[in-house]
Amino acid sequence: MIQAVRLNEHHVVGNMLLAASISPEYGLSLRHKMVPALFIAANFGYPEIIQSLLQHRLVHPSAIDGEGNTALILACRYDPNFPEGGKLAVVRLLLSSGMANVNARNMFGHTALSKAIVAGYSSIVRALTDAMDIMLRGTTALHMAMVSTQANPDIVETLVRSGKVDLNEVDAFGNTALHMGVLYNRLDMVRALIGNGAHSLDFFARDPKNQMTPLDTAHALGRGEIVQLVSHVQQQVYVIRATTSSVQAIEQA
């Protein structure tokens, strides 16, 4: 079975699973191969095999490997040899089963979302955030998106628009996502963050080490384009907030 899974021979695998569901004795002989088959199919992005495994209910979608990875986490892991489309289809199947834990972490603290962000899988990030019904507290998902070399502005936009991330949350070093975009000179990410969440950003947040705002940091590092962008939007936001406060004061008077 394992070889058939590796070769994506989904018809062969499907017939084996059908036989296993009919014959308890044959199913018992394949039992030890079910979980590895699930992990391989998820990692390679083989939705037909995943669908067969889920359909025959011979393996639980939240099973974990020796490193604590679920099939969902493995499906989100970057692999240049397998297209995002197949992995996205696997992710959707696992999520639709209702038994895959979208918030599960492996022994290294990685989740399916963090893997997808680092891999730059925009469509998978969107599918995962849509499936989450809680705020992503205690994570640095947005920070990862701002600095990962594989990530792209679409991922930042998806995270911001999901409403499930705190745009001003700080990482272990006290930096906001905007700080990180400046530090790594990611103009494209800074633009995406500001363009989709300027009204909620704290432009005056200071890192604990140097007590510098993102704009201060951009000036200090000579990030000219970022300085121009942040200062322009920061001024616009300041005017809007000041105007809003004045209107509210008048209404309350």
Key attributes of the depicted protein:
mainly alpha; single chain; elongated; 253 residues; Serine Threonine Protein Phosphatase 5, Tetratricopeptide repeat; 14 helices
Mean model confidence by pLDDT: 86
Strand content: under 5%
Name the structural class: mainly alpha
Structural Rg: 23 Å
Instruction: Work out the count of structural domains.
Output: 2
Shape: elongated
> Which spans have pLDDT < 50 for at least 5 consecutive residues?
none
Fraction of helical residues: 55-70%
**Cα separation of the termini:** 75 Å
**What is the count of β-strands?**
0
SSE topology string: HHHHHHHHHHHHHH
- Which CATH-level-2 architecture of the largest domain? Alpha Horseshoe
- Annotated CATH topology of the largest domain: Serine Threonine Protein Phosphatase 5, Tetratricopeptide repeat
How many helices does DSSP assign?
A: 14
CATH fourth-tier homologous superfamily of the largest domain? Ankyrin repeat-containing domain
**Main beta-sheet annotation:** none
CATH class of the largest domain: Mainly Alpha
